[in-house]
Amino acid sequence: MNLTAPPRSGPSRGSMILVEEVALLLVHEISGRAVVDPSRINLALAGAVLLDLVASGQVEVAGPGEQVKAGRLVVRDPRPTGEPLLDEALRRIGAVTPRTPENMLLELHKGLREEVLARLVARGLLRSEEKRILRIFRIRSWPSTGSAEEKTLRTALYDVLVIGRSATTHEAAIVSMLHAVDRVPTVLGAVGVNARELRRRAKVVGDGGVADQAVRRAIDAVNAAMMVVLTAATVPSPS
């Protein structure tokens, strides 16, 4: 590894990375509460981190014929991105023998929601609020600030899933993560298209909206890994 290699050019200052966009969409704009349970949102965010690193060319899902077993995650470019959250994930992926996406989702997802929400608060896209019930139970929420960035993001999803505009690779990755936790209808709200049709369209976008084969392979692998992890979490232990 070349420890003196210069950092890659990461996202421009002010632009959100994929994991931030997914987190923003999975928080209700008014109530500020997550629209999916903590285990699912953390897995979706971990999946978004992996897809961000794959899209940048730094991590890839190994294919057939490589020295690494097919389906394992490998670091192709260890240079830092300039984004601390992504750089820590890159370090952790590269610090171990190549592992499966399921393993890395479980490795990366712990505490991810809190970290990403704190980033969104610092950027002024969410507000952090806290109240107590009976002076004992603490309830936290993160209402939207109604930023232009969020409006642009939600409009893009509407254009792709309701109007039918072709999705960019980045948009397809967002849709794929939302679909993996079955929250596309919830995120879009009342748009004149029923939930079943929105799910169908989201699957089509996730399955066919990516021309880049490395990203396509990663989306498939992450989706399959999330299904395995979530299924395992719901299977009762034998008595």
UniProtKB/TrEMBL annotation:
It is a peripheral membrane protein. The keyword Zinc does not apply. The keyword Membrane applies. It is found in: Golgi apparatus membrane. Pfam families: GPP34. Its main location: Golgi. GO terms for cellular component: cytoplasm; endomembrane system. Keywords: Golgi apparatus, Lipid-binding, Membrane. GO terms for molecular function: phosphatidylinositol-4-phosphate binding. Gene3D superfamilies: yeast vps74-n-term truncation variant domain like. This is Golgi phosphoprotein 3 GPP34. The lineage of its organism: Bacteria, Bacillati, Actinomycetota, Actinomycetes, Micrococcales.
